[in-house]
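Re: the 59-residue chain
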Amino acid sequence: MTLLRVLQSVLAAMFGVQSEKKYHDDFSKPAIAPYLIVGIILVAALVVTLSAFVNYLAQ
């Protein structure tokens, strides 16, 4: 399980385009921590980016 694979899985899941096979492969792994950490970081980055964009437009 590499960082790139975890990142791809989390991004695909966020956009709703993850394949059934990859979904089952991800959930067959015993470690959930990498997926949670990457997911939290990506959601936080999305919120910060959208907030900065909205503030930029409101000026």
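The helical segments are 3-15, 20-27, 33-58.
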